[in-house]
Design goal:
It is a single chain. With 220 residues, the protein is α/β, with parallel strands linked by helices. The protein has a single domain (2-139, 182-216), classed as 3-Layer(aba) Sandwich (Rossmann fold), CATH 3.40.50. It has nine helices and seven strands. The protein has helices at residues 2-5, 9-16, 20-30, 49-53, 66-78, 115-125, 143-165, 168-180, 184-193, and strands at residues 40-43, 59-63, 84-87, 100-106, 126-137, 196-204, 209-216. A seven-stranded mixed sheet has the order 3-2-1-4-5-7-6, with helices on both faces. β4, α6 (115-125) and β5 form a beta-alpha-beta unit. The longest helix has 23 residues, at 143-165.
Length: 220
């Protein structure tokens, strides 16, 4: 599904979020100011937008979708910023323990087959006091925003996805995955259970998205 959606991924993200995804990614990248010196792993890097927005650090982009990585490599080449990329499963990362100072994930944790296993792997590859920054879509808790989001997905997301990508499955999956995914408070609780100290947990666009930032605690 992600392979089929890859060629239209950027366009549809911008259209369906009214380009708010661009500002949200900037806020995600800004959280790296709190990270110790060292490399950044952009997990579920997709077409590389977050990885390309990070400056002043060594960055590695990882994704399980080869087609997304191919587009990320081409995008980096066009911008004169070649990306270091690796095909990898977020639940079994091919990196040594304490290999990176920060992990960023934009719209990726919702697709983990096992959220707790993914958090454990992220903790393993982070240095003590390393930063985990998650940008994700969630179910809005405010009724009016939730009603708007449902209408938007029904009348905009699904029809626009079908029109541009001819992939019914991919753009039916998006609202369904949001409805069944953990909310912002549950994400914070899961991180605490895996010995992450919460730094920030903020709603974006009334709760349609959220930015969660945590530090890997030094205890083993």
């Amino acid at each position: 599904m992600f392979s089929r959606a890859a060629s239209h991924y950027d366009l549809l993200n911008h259209l369906m979020s009214l380009r708010r995804d661009v500002a949200w990614r900037r806020r995600l990248v800004a959280t790296l100011d709190a990270a110790p010196a060292g490399a950044v792993l952009d997990l579920a890097t997709g077409t590389g937008d977050v990885a390309l927005a990070i400056s002043g650090r060594r960055v590695l982009g990882a994704d399980f979708c080869y087609e997304m990585l191919h587009l990320a490599r081409r995008k980096g080449g066009r911008r004169g910023t070649p990306l270091a990329l690796v095909a990898a499963d977020a639940l079994a990362l091919p990196f040594k323990a304490a290999a990176v100072a920060a992990v960023t994930i934009a719209f990726g944790v919702r697709n983990f087959a096992d959220l707790d296993a993914g958090i454990r792997e992220i903790r393993r590859v982070l240095v003590p006091r390393g930063v985990l920054a998650i940008l994700e879509l969630h179910r809005p808790r405010r009724r009016a925003v939730a009603a708007f989001a449902r209408a938007w997905h029904r009348w905009i997301t699904a029809p626009l996805g079908r029109l541009i990508s001819a992939d019914k499955e991919a753009y039916a999956y998006l609202p369904a995955s949001i409805d069944t995914f953990a909310d912002r408070e549950e994400i914070a609780a899961r991180l605490a259970a895996h010995r992450f100290g919460l730094v920030a947990s903020r709603d974006l666009a009334g709760g349609i998205a959220a930015l969660t930032v945590a530090l890997r605690e030094e205890t083993q």
